[in-house]
């Protein structure tokens, strides 16, 4: 097996692997746990100036990436093997979630299209069935940093990439909650002590404290996550009632 396969389509191939060439993702790339192909979409232009954009129909500022160029780059990437999700990084997309990341990393890989200028011609989104994925409600100057973020989130979940497998399942979002607070030595720092329970050696109490803290932090910071977590817990309790 050649590993999880990412193809990035961009007009700035020099931005890759960038930070993904270092640390966890970089070591995994070197050892073949995943594979990264980066294609310059300008290679699919047919004119001397390697043009990938044109003025927006209907007028207005900026430029739009041409449908034929983006489609040719996608079709070329598809020829590489089994079908992979085709993702367009876009502020209009569904905000990326840990659930989507997990599903992506369990598949064969992904094709990531990085927009530039005002974005890409709507027709290529329809014609190639692109899934629009957003990093959040803010505007980047291009899809590259968003693609790096998607890849980083996926790669760290690939089998064999992270040292302690358990650490992934306890993290923020994996249980529908934000994570509990962490502490390490020294026992007292600037007059602040590590909570007693964490140095008690009582694993049951530690686990209950962590769960309670995760719930408190989620309730305070993310009412949206808290609402769906509470709904799920409610449904679990109802199920248990049914068995009585
Ligand atoms: N005119 C667009 C913004 C274009 S920004 C608008 O108003 O919606 C240029 C490119 O950056 C986009 O095509 C997309 O690929 C990328 N991009 C910008 N913000 C992003 C975000 N929040 N998430 C993912 N990609 C983003």
TrEMBL record:
<keyword id="KW-0963">Cytoplasm</keyword>
<dbReference type="InterPro" id="IPR023148">
    <property type="entry name" value="tRNA_m1G_MeTrfase_C_sf"/>
</dbReference>
<dbReference type="InterPro" id="IPR029028">
    <property type="entry name" value="Alpha/beta_knot_MTases"/>
</dbReference>
<dbReference type="GO" id="GO:0005829">
    <property type="term" value="C:cytosol"/>
</dbReference>
<dbReference type="InterPro" id="IPR002649">
    <property type="entry name" value="tRNA_m1G_MeTrfase_TrmD"/>
</dbReference>
<comment type="similarity">
    <text>Belongs to the RNA methyltransferase TrmD family.</text>
</comment>
<protein>
    <recommendedName>
        <fullName>tRNA (guanine-N(1)-)-methyltransferase</fullName>
        <ecNumber>2.1.1.228</ecNumber>
    </recommendedName>
</protein>
<keyword id="KW-0949">S-adenosyl-L-methionine</keyword>
<feature type="binding site">
    <location>
        <position position="115"/>
    </location>
    <ligand>
        <name>S-adenosyl-L-methionine</name>
    </ligand>
</feature>
<dbReference type="InterPro" id="IPR016009">
    <property type="entry name" value="tRNA_MeTrfase_TRMD/TRM10"/>
</dbReference>
<dbReference type="GO" id="GO:0002939">
    <property type="term" value="P:tRNA N1-guanine methylation"/>
</dbReference>
<dbReference type="GO" id="GO:0052906">
    <property type="term" value="F:tRNA (guanine(37)-N1)-methyltransferase activity"/>
</dbReference>
<comment type="function">
    <text>Specifically methylates guanosine-37 in various tRNAs.</text>
</comment>
<keyword id="KW-0819">tRNA processing</keyword>
<dbReference type="Pfam" id="PF01746">
    <property type="entry name" value="tRNA_m1G_MT"/>
</dbReference>
<feature type="domain" description="tRNA methyltransferase TRMD/TRM10-type">
    <location>
        <begin position="7"/>
        <end position="227"/>
    </location>
</feature>
<feature type="binding site">
    <location>
        <begin position="135"/>
        <end position="140"/>
    </location>
    <ligand>
        <name>S-adenosyl-L-methionine</name>
    </ligand>
</feature>
<dbReference type="InterPro" id="IPR029026">
    <property type="entry name" value="tRNA_m1G_MTases_N"/>
</dbReference>
<keyword id="KW-0808">Transferase</keyword>
<keyword id="KW-0489">Methyltransferase</keyword>
<comment type="subunit">
    <text>Homodimer.</text>
</comment>
């Amino acid at each position: 097996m050649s590993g999880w396969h990412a193809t990035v389509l961009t007009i700035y191939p020099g931005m890759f692997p960038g930070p993904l060439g270092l640390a966890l993702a970089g070591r995994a790339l070197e050892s073949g746990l995943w594979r990264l192909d980066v294609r310059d979409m300008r290679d699919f232009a047919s004119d001397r100036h390697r043009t990938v954009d044109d003025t927006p129909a209907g007028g207005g500022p900026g430029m739009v990436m041409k449908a034929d160029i983006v489609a040719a780059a996608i079709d070329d990437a598809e020829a590489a093997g089994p079908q992979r999700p085709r993702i367009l990084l876009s502020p209009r997309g569904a905000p990326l979630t840990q659930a989507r990341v997990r599903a992506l990393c369990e598949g064969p890989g992904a094709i990531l299209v990085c927009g530039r200028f005002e974005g890409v011609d709507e027709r290529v989104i329809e014609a190639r069935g692109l899934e629009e994925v957003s990093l959040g409600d803010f505007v980047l100057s291009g899809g590259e940093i968003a693609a790096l973020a998607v890849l980083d989130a996926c790669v760290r979940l690939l089998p064999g990439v992270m040292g302690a497998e358990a650490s992934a399942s306890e993290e923020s979002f994996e249980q529908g909650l934000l994570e509990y607070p962490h502490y390490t030595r020294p026992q007292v720092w600037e007059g602040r002590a590590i909570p007693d329970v964490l140095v008690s050696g009582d694993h049951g109490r530690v686990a209950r404290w962590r769960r309670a803290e995760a719930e408190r932090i989620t309730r305070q910071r993310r009412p949206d996550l808290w609402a769906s977590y509470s709904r799920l817990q409610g449904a679990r309790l109802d199920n248990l009632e049914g068995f009585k």
